[in-house]
Design a protein that fits this description.
This protein is mainly beta and 295 residues long. The chain has one domain (2-294). The chain is 5% helix and 66% strand. It contains one helix and 15 strands. It has one helix spanning 2-15, and strands at residues 26-35, 42-56, 62-77, 91-104, 109-121, 133-145, 154-163, 172-182, 185-191, 193-199, 204-225, 228-248, 252-269, 275-280, 284-294. It has a 14-stranded antiparallel β-barrel.
Length: 295
Amino acid sequence: MKWKILGLSAALYFLFSPVLSAQLVDLARVDFTILPSGASNFEFSRIRGNFNYPLKLKNEKGYLFLGLDYSNINFVYNQEELSFDSEVITEFQIIDLNIAYVVKLKNDWMLGARFSPGISSNLKLFDSSAEDIVFSGDLVFIKDKKDQSKTNPYRLIVGISYSGNRGFPVPLPFLSYYRKFHSNWSYDLGIPKTNLQYHFSEKNRLKLYAQLDGFTANINGGTPVDQDIAQSINMSLILAGIQYECHFKDHFEFYLRTSYILSRDVQLRDSKKDDIFLIDDSNGGYISTGLRIKI
C-alpha cells in the first residue's frame, strides 16, 4: 500500500512536470495564461487543459499512465506594418498524447519513462499534416522519502527530458530535489523549475519560483518573411514570480501566479530551425490562473 501511494504520487510528479507543467500530482487541470503587451507590440494568451489516468499493472510493481494535454495559443500583434502575414501565425493548437511507465526498483528508487507524440501547428487539429507531428519524452530515476512520519522528508529526481513543442526543443537535464526543512517551509531545487514554499496551513501556501516556459509550433506550408520562408515559431521564456495556492474539497486546488519575464525570445525559424526573424524579446509581466484535480 505504501508503494502504491508514494509511487503513484512521485510518478505523476515526474510524468507531468516537464516545461510549463505543474509540480503537483494532477489528474486533471485547466488554466489560462496571458502575457500582456505592456511596452511591446506583442501579446500572448494560452488556454490549456489536461487529463491523466493511472493504470496499476498486475505485477503491482509498476504503473502505466495515459493522458491528453491540449493548448490553444493566440497572438495579438499591436503593430500595423509587419514583415510577415500575421493572420497565418495568430492561432496555434498543441495536443500531446502522454504514455508513460513507472516501475519500482531497489532501495526506494523508481524508474520512469515517458513518450509523448503530438501535434503542434497553426492549423486546426483535423487539418494538420505530417509536418506538424512532434515528439517528446523523459527518462528519470526517482527516490521519494516524503513520508511525513520521517524527519526532513525529501524527494530526488534525476534524468533527461526532451520536448519538441515547449519552447526549448533540445535535450535538457531533468533535476528536482525537494526537502521540507521546517513545519512551514520547503524548497524544490531543479530544472525546469525551482521554488521556495511557505505553508500557511495544510490548505494554503505561497511560492517564490523560477521556471522555463514557452512553446514551439510548425507553420504549415510556411510564410514569407523578407527574403526567407518561416517554417516554425519558437517562444522561450525564463520566469520568476510568486504563486498562491488554495486546496479545498480534498482533491481540488486553485492557484494564481504572477511573474516577471527575465528573458523572452520569440523567433520565426526556417526549415533548418535557424532564427530568421525576431518577433519580440522584451521583458514584462506574466499572469496565470487555474484549477487542478489531484491525488
